[in-house]
Fold this protein.
Amino acid sequence: MPELPEVEVIRLELNPLIRGKTFAYPLLHIPTTIQHPSSDLFALNLEGQTIQALGRRGKYLLFYLNRDILVVHLRMTGNLIFIGQDDLPRVERFLRIELPFIDGSALHYSDMRRFGRLWLVKDSKELETLVLKNVGPDIYTELKAEQFKTLLKQKGKKNLKALLLDQSCFSGMGNIYTDECLHLCHLHPEQQASILTEHETEKLYQTIQEVLKMGIECGGTSFRDYRNASGALGDFQNKLSVYGRKGERCSCGALIEKTVVAGRGTYYCPCCQIKRCNGNNNESLKR
Ligand SMILES: [Zn+2]
């Protein structure tokens, strides 16, 4: 948390609010939040730069400035909130970085657990080598269905949950949306990827696109800490069919279970999502 839809919602919201604005000198309350360069250089170099465009890859938010690229990864509990010129001062308990603009507005980065990081890199080459070295194409905006199929074959020994969470294959999927997509496709999270039929692979790809789109349209999923750029909650948590619903009924009537797959808490329906054995491609799922 937050996953691709939450970061995309923040990007879409911030874009009209901050594009064209010029940074003043930042206040680094927790300097270790700055991953690159040193916190002193970060502050010096950021001041005076103007935001030209906002991009994203997976869960990384990219601010294209007139010289450099500012990168933000929110990790577990990071929040990026826009503060307008006329907004009343607010108490932010976990405020780590203040990024004021010369017009009096600001971006506030707060983070309870302090895992989030900011970078300031010189160009797209440095972006790729320093920040996104192990981050695959964005599953929502970059990865095509054919590439998805190929990757699933190449990495077929992995189980589906581990594969979808592996940001080096393709980026953006996290725990919540992965569980939801596998449930909608009636695929067991521990299912080895290589035994999916062509049709199942296509359906999984389409489902991922649709679920991410719906997540974005709902303003993201709010569990615990996520807020969008104006501090509001998302709505997708009300549409989840398995995630966070252990012991509740699936639409098929069975009780949703929770287990651990790929080191992550994983929700699934033991009736809809049956694990198949290797070499047993055509076994139809019991419903
Ligand atoms: Zn079910």
The two ends are 31 Å apart (CA to CA). The first helix runs from residue 4 to 18. The mean pLDDT is 92.
